[in-house]
């Protein structure tokens, strides 16, 4: 599995219930501007294993701050770049020697994929 997603594939999947071509174009143009201005996303052209060449988006930002489900933000709204302290005394992303269990959720498309 690649670490990136095809922009066209994502567009078609996200906007599958929007049937107006004009509205689809407007919506996706706004989405593309926001995503491509995000410093954590790399836009490039890649070739898939099947030989298909397409424009892709790849997440290159840190995932460590997302582990607490709060995006690394404190209750005050400020961001802690050094990790978030846990009740056990450790920090997210920094092992304190204790075995930690993390919930793993699988993406559900809601329809079969062939």
TrEMBL record:
PANTHER family: INNER NUCLEAR MEMBRANE PROTEIN HEH2-RELATED, LEM DOMAIN-CONTAINING PROTEIN 2. One of its GO terms (molecular function) is chromatin binding. Signal peptide: none annotated. Residues 76-100 are annotated as: Disordered. GO terms for biological process: nuclear membrane organization. It comes from the Eukaryota. GO terms for cellular component: endoplasmic reticulum; nuclear inner membrane; nuclear periphery. It comes from Heterodermia speciosa. This is Inner nuclear membrane protein enriched at telomere/subtelomere region. Residues 4-62 form the Man1/Src1-like C-terminal domain. It is found in: Nucleus inner membrane. Its main location: nucleus. Keywords: Membrane, Nucleus, Phosphoprotein, Transmembrane, Transmembrane helix. InterPro entries: Heh2/Src1, Man1/Src1-like_C, MAN1_winged_helix_dom.
């Amino acid at each position: 599995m690649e670490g990136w997603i095809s922009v066209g594939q994502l567009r078609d999947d996200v906007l599958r219930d929007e049937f107006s071509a004009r509205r689809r174009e407007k919506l996706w143009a706004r989405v593309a501007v926001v995503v491509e201005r995000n410093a954590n996303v790399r836009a490039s052209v890649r070739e898939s294993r099947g030989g298909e060449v397409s424009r892709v988006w790849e997440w290159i930002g840190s995932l460590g701050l997302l582990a607490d489900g709060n995006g690394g933000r404190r209750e005050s709204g400020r961001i802690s770049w050094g990790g978030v302290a846990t009740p056990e005394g450790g920090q997210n992303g920094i092992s304190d020697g204790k075995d930690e269990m993390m919930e793993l959720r699988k993406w559900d498309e809601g329809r079969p994929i062939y």
